[in-house]
Every structure is written in structure tokens, then in C-alpha cells.
Design brief:
The protein has helices spanning about 1-30, 35-130. The chain is mostly helical and about 130 residues long.
């Protein structure tokens, strides 16, 4: 899109410059008195400056619109990124919570297993003790 605007702007600028040079050449080679020629040059120069000013204003307005759109889009992307980050953090908390619960279950199972092993060991030791 920007490239298309550059092409159009380049063409329009070239057209204006060419028009100005053509008008200037026409005035210079036209059979007029010096006073008429200076007056005509002044008038045409003013017209060219006015057109250049209009082009500048249009380009400035377009640039402002493009910058505002880019800023708006950047804000949207920032909000979307923040939303996804918050969702990822929430999911991470859930996973950590599930992992902690799993660790507690394993720890409980290990403790129960150790208690059972101690009981079995103590039964075995009592069996092996000499009877008095």
C-alpha cells in the first residue's frame, strides 16, 4: 500500500514539475513584454506553490492517519498479548497446583509404604528373637 502511494506521489510530483517547466518554457518563448512576462511568471509560480502546499498538506494528513492506525493496531496487539500472557500464567498456576497435589499423594503413599515396611520388619524381628 505504501509503495503504491509512493508511486502515485512520485508520478504526481513529476507531473507537477513537468507542468511547471512546460508552463515556464511557454511563457519564456511567448512574445510578451518583460512586465507581462514577470507578471505571468509570478502568477504561475504562486499557483505551483499553492499546489505544492496542497500536496504537502494531503501527504501530512495521510501520514497522520497511517500513524494513528499503526498506533491503534499496536495497542490492540499489546492488549491481546497481555490477555494471552494472563491466560498462560493461570494455566501455569493450575499445572503447578496439580503437581503439588500429585507430590502430596506420592509422599503419603511413600509414608504409608514405609510404615508398612517397618511393621513387617518388626514382625520379622520378633519371629527371629529367641523365646525365653
Amino acid at each position: 500500500m505504501a509503495e503504491n502511494d509512493n508511486v502515485r506521489g512520485g508520478f504526481l510530483g513529476g507531473f507537477l514539475i513537468g507542468s511547471f517547466i512546460g508552463a515556464l518554457a511557454g511563457l519564456l518563448f511567448a512574445p510578451k513584454s518583460g512586465k507581462e512576462l514577470r507578471s505571468e511568471l509570478k502568477r504561475k509560480g504562486g499557483e505551483v506553490l499553492d499546489e505544492a502546499g496542497e500536496l504537502y498538506s494531503e501527504a501530512q494528513a495521510r501520514a497522520k492517519i497511517i500513524l494513528e492506525e499503526a498506533h491503534r493496531r499496536a495497542e490492540e496487539l499489546k492488549k491481546e498479548a497481555n490477555l494471552q500472557l494472563a491466560e498462560a500464567r493461570l494455566k501455569a498456576k493450575e499445572v503447578v497446583g496439580e503437581a503439588k497435589a500429585g507430590v502430596k499423594k506420592v509422599k503419603g503413599a511413600v509414608e504409608v509404604g514405609l510404615e508398612a515396611a517397618k511393621k513387617e520388619l518388626s514382625k520379622e524381628e520378633r519371629k527371629d528373637e529367641p523365646k525365653a
